[in-house]
Amino acid sequence: MRAAFFRLPLIALAAAALSGGGALAQASQAEEDLTVLPAPSDDFRPAMTAWGEPDFRGRWPIDHLNGRTPLQRAAEHGNRQLLTQEEFNARAEMVEQLERRYQNEDSSGTMGIGHWAEVAAANRRTSWITAPANGRLPAFTAEGQRLSDAMRSTWAQGQPFDTWHDFDSWDRCISRGMPASMFPFMYNNGMRIFQSPGIVAIQMEMVHETRIIPTDGRAPIPAVIGHWLGESRGAWEDHNTLVVTTTNFLPGPSATNIGTTGSPPSNKTPVSAEARMVERFHMVGPDEIIYEFTWEDPVVFVEPWSARLEWQRSDDYEIFEYACHEGNVQIRNYINASRAERGLIPVAAE
């Protein structure tokens, strides 16, 4: 369903074996420090735009984060934010095996997942989620569970398809939603930041959406107006941090789908009208941003949760067309195939 115009070669290995940001490239970190991520430094002073704001413009793809780090932490890692050296070595070996799929398919004259999925170098993070302390999504509220159970998606196993209501917004090539759009996926990880006086725009390769973030202090729009990506307002803090608060998310049973490694298997994560997201884009070097956010949705989750990712500038990265489902026929094909499978419509004889 999510076909795209892919880069070749697809496998984009980072140069450093411990990619994920210079702040984490410390293979010798002591065992007792593995529960703590280094705090972002305030020492770096980015260049300023002609109108006097920190200059974050450029290409900041997150494909280097696609090295099998899960959204949620495995139980055996407890409250540890970082892998031990032995655990990292095991992950690096797994990533190396995944990387070989491309060459193996080429040598055998086939094309499969190796040509489809991008894999980057391993890093030492145990999960992208940093809070709660166990690195896992909080439990759903009773209403959150009800909304999740009502969601329909191609990710769900064994689900029949009869109408467009049986597909989530990503299936329908509308939006990956929030906060999902800010996480790496197995392809289309391009991010590009544009700025003009009073405006920051973040272009995302997945679904070709662009987040428009006013930084000029304008008033919020009415709460009854909902958007797939919400309505954002930004403010500059100190000399190197952009703080973005986003509300006005479009609620519904098919509102978002996290879909990154380690997401809940069904990927059915609803969003309510009360959801609120606070992000911090903290530039700590000329080519590094520490990106952190906290997601609050009291209708869906029993408590807020937070995540952190280390962005790296790569101005050579090219954003290609995201074609999704060409011809707009896939929803119909899913429905017809599902009905035929259930014997509701006859299948033409060969």
Automatic annotation (TrEMBL):
Keyword line: Signal
Domain of life: Bacteria
Signal peptide: 1-25
Protein name (database record): Uncharacterized protein
Naturally occurring in which organism (per UniProt): Alteraurantiacibacter lauratis
